[in-house]
Predict the structure.
Amino acid sequence: MSRRRALTAATGLAAGALLPPTAARGTASAQGSTLATAAAFTNPVIWQDFADIDVIRVGSTFYASASTMHYSPGAPVLRSYDLVNWEIAGHSVPVLDFGAKYDLNGARGYVRGVWASSLAYRPSNRTFYWLGQIDFTRTYVYTATAAEGPWNRLTTIGTPYYDAGLLVDTDDTLYVAYGNTTISVAQLSPDGREQVCTQQVFTTPSNVGTLEGSRFYKINGQYYIFLTRPANGQYILKSSGGPFGPYTMRQVLLDLHGPIPGGGVPHQGGLVQTQNGAWYYMAFVDAYPGGRMPALAPVTWTPDGWPVVQLVNGAWGTSYPSPAVPAPPRQVTPMTGVDTFDGTALKPRWEWNHNPDNTKWSVNNGLTLRTATVTNDLYWARNTLTHRIQGPTSTATVQLDHSAMRDGDRAGLALLRDSSAWIGLKRDGGTTRVVMVNGLAMDGNWNTTGTGTEAASATVSGSRIWLRANADIRPGAPRPGTFSYSTDGTNFTRLGPAFSLGNDWRFFMGYRFALFNHATQALGGSVRIARFELTTP
């Protein structure tokens, strides 16, 4: 639970990683001419909320996994061919079947669920493994033969491997590094279904404080456990004596200025090697209200085997030369653009707020949301479908048919987090109005403290409406979210005041666009969404 105590908005000045400040500046200067002639990428490489990244390479393809907390399906699998351009391939956790609270059934799972977890590939059986602990009680392991799935649960292990890193050793043995401050290593059975043994291997010195977020590697015969100091540092342990140690520790970075103005220190994440032997570190940057954004930097190694993050002017670079990798076999699927809900399944860019009631929604060249909950509290409403916001600013527009709404129904487009606002439709007494509602809020225990106040409204006729939300997720003030609507899809009318997006880190997940439809009187109504479009300026 230390993340709730220790995560802070940490910026500060660069400590120079393992290089003294003069050497760091010299390295950056040497890179300057290269930057001018070589293709370059810009950080963050993904300006969407993908935290606690674990990144691996299988052949010529890179994969990454991320935290999703209470969103379902959980643990997205990202895919890239160059470490810079990424797409969402699928999810390792198809449903959060960890208790009724993840169904919004008598309890709620906000800020629980899928925390920092691990993704690995086992060449011996050509299988992907995902491993993560849930609710500090047990660990779940899922496997798939393809990143896009299907993923299936392999086993449940009684030991909760907190912030786990899974290593497939060169002899095919499976090891897990895990823990908070006290770091342990467990060995799994050959089939990966149970723990053989576990042993404490390291205790964090008191002058360092908290270390967690394990990533486990074997590089040139040495074992490494890559650890984060939330939220401003990165350290690494090295052992030449085997996976159980003994380990020695080095600081990788501390209070390093990051690439997002107003954002935090790049940290956590993992190391990965390209086909030509180059190494990179993919970290995340705390950048609320949007969340935690992946950033990439090249890594070199000292002669005695310690990693060094390459800096630009003493900081994590906003730009570096692009990784030298083979041309991709195809373009990845953009994380922005239009979704017309073609086919009969949701695309992997979508995640539900908690598990959905699958009898109350369908996709068939359009998305139908039937009311699944009778409530006046959006935080209790099932079947709220969410999409990450693209930074630094982006706009979501939905085309919605509301002809099948019933009295008491509420449907629309929200900016969803622990403080929320929305634009949408209220149907009461046979009349439909478009409204802007703000003041939805939860407290630090994720109990609802405000169900919303109507700030503006207008009458609408016909059966179709276009709803639009714009979000500015750049850290700092004023972080506005604004709403508008249209009856023809072309001319939009602003509705209601600007909503100031909250930037408290304790909810961990960033704001999302959310499509919802719930009842306040009785079930039976529905809306149909023909089109969703996410655009950037």
User: Anything to note?
Assistant: The CA atoms of residues 68 and 456 lie 33 Å apart.
